[in-house]
């Protein structure tokens, strides 16, 4: 029997009709997906006055991790800028540092923010805490080079979408537990937070083709967890296992018609229960990643504008170039 599911937003349903969807992910399909072209970041930067710097940092095991630093060109010395540390999505098994980069570039436009994005290693080649540790090393580098980058170390926002949202949550937990660096906020966009994959929404979006299904989610988690038993899984890898006290202010959004709806809602609820501050948006009819896939949709424009408004309040900054969307 087909489970009852929240209906897709009509505009998104029409757009998805032209997109090839699948329900399963396996090593062969993953290899094919990894051959697809990367996001053409040059075209996104062409109309912007942006300085681009490519650097590498050493991971805990000595591997070299790439960071791209995208800074607005400044004609004169100004006050230090906020920084958005962007962690890309892709189920922890695909994507690169430029995946979904159009999202944080809006904040470069709006607030003059410096955007730093990280090329963490992917599963299944990397497993366990390797991915989140790679991201944490990038965050440490930003904090250590704040003056050089022209950023305000008190206004570093860790942000990510999907798997990147889960890794952003893990990085924020690491920074809390290790006492450094200070993070002003975390923005978790449809985050992948719970390896158990056992919520109502994960069941609703299994057994049916989609952008990201319960079966695909299980594949991604198997890839990153490797041989770890349930008792060995660190909360930095599966943040839903963590104590959520003492976290910086948090923004979470998700769609009503997607796998991660319930674990994302639960994460916000548990932050509140621990005395923290979180803003939660569940976009009615939104599928997984709808605003990244279809930024032209009305629901996407609303979701993106709402995030930017939240950042404006958080950073106490005027906008520089009007409304998003």
Quick structural summary:
The chain contains twelve helices and eight strands.
What are the defining features of this structure?
18% strand; disordered C terminus; eight-stranded mixed beta sheet; 325 residues; Rossmann fold; globular; alpha/beta
Overview of the structural elements:
The chain is an alpha/beta fold. It has a single domain (10-315), classed as Alpha/Beta hydrolase fold, catalytic domain (Rossmann fold, 3-Layer(aba) Sandwich). 36% of the residues lie in helices and 18% in strands. It has 12 helices and 8 strands. The chain has helices spanning 10-16, 27-34, 41-45, 102-111, 130-144, 146-149, 163-178, 200-204, 214-225, 261-273, 290-293, 298-315; strands at residues 50-58, 64-72, 81-87, 114-119, 151-161, 185-189, 249-255, 278-283. Strands 1-2-4-3-5-6-7-8 form an 8-stranded mixed beta sheet, sandwiched between helices. Strand 3 (81-87), helix 4 (102-111) and strand 4 (114-119) form a beta-alpha-beta unit. Helix 4 packs across helix 12. It is globular. The termini are far apart. Mean pLDDT is 94; it is low at 318-325.
Instruction: Provide the succession of SSEs.
Output: HHHEEEHEHHEHEHHEHEHH
Provide the number of structural domains: 1
Annotation, overall tally of beta strands: 8
Based on CA atoms alone, the radius of gyration comes out at: 19 Å
Low-confidence stretches: 318-325
Top-tier CATH class: Alpha Beta
Q: What is the 3D shape?
A: globular
Largest sheet: 8 strands, mixed
* Strand fraction: 15-25%
From the N-terminal CA to the C-terminal CA, the straight-line distance is 40 Å
Share in helix = 25-40%
Q: What is the CATH architecture term? A: 3-Layer(aba) Sandwich
Decide which structural class fits the backbone: alpha/beta
User: Quick check: average pLDDT?
Assistant: 94
Write out the CATH superfamily name.
Answer: Alpha/Beta hydrolase fold, catalytic domain
Question: How are the strands ordered across the major sheet?
Answer: 1-2-4-3-5-6-7-8
Q: Enumerate how many helices there are, as a single number.
A: 12
At CATH level 3, the topology is: Rossmann fold
């Amino acid at each position: 029997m087909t489970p009852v599911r929240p209906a897709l937003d009509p505009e998104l349903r029409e757009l998805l009709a032209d997109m090839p969807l699948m329900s399963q992910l396996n090593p062969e399909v993953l290899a094919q997906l990894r051959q697809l072209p990367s996001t053409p970041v040059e075209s996104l930067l062409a109309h912007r006055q942006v300085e681009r710097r490519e650097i590498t940092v050493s991971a805990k095991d000595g591997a070299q991790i790439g960071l791209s630093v995208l800074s607005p060109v400044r004609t004169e010395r100004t006050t230090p800028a906020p920084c958005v540390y962007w962690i890309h999505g892709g189920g922890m098994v695909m994507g690169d540092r430029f995946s979904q980069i159009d999202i944080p570039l809006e904040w470069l436009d709006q607030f003059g923010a410096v955007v730093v994005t990280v090329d963490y290693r992917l599963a299944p080649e990397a497993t366990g805490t390797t991915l989140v540790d790679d991201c944490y090393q990038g965050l440490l580098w930003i904090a250590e080079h704040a003056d050089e980058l022209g950023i305000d170390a008190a206004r570093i926002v860790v942000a990510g979408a999907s798997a990147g949202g889960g890794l952003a949550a893990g990085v924020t937990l690491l920074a809390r537990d290790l006492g450094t660096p200070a993070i002003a906020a975390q923005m978790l966009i449809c985050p992948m937070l719970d390896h158990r994959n056992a919520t109502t929404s994960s069941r609703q979006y299994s057994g049916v083709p989609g952008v990201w299904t319960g079966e695909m989610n299980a594949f991604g988690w198997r890839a990153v967890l490797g041989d770890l038993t349930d008792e060995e899984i660190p909360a930095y890898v599966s943040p839903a296992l963590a104590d959520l006290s003492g976290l910086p202010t948090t923004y979470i959004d998700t769609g009503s018609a997607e796998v991660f709806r319930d674990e994302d809602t639960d994460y916000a609820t548990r932050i509140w229960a621990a005395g923290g501050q979180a803003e939660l948006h569940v976009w009615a009819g939104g599928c997984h990643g709808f605003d990244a896939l279809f930024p032209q949709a009305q629901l996407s424009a609303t979701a993106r504008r709402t995030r930017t408004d939240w950042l404006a309040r958080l950073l106490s900054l005027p906008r520089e170039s009007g409304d998003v969307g």
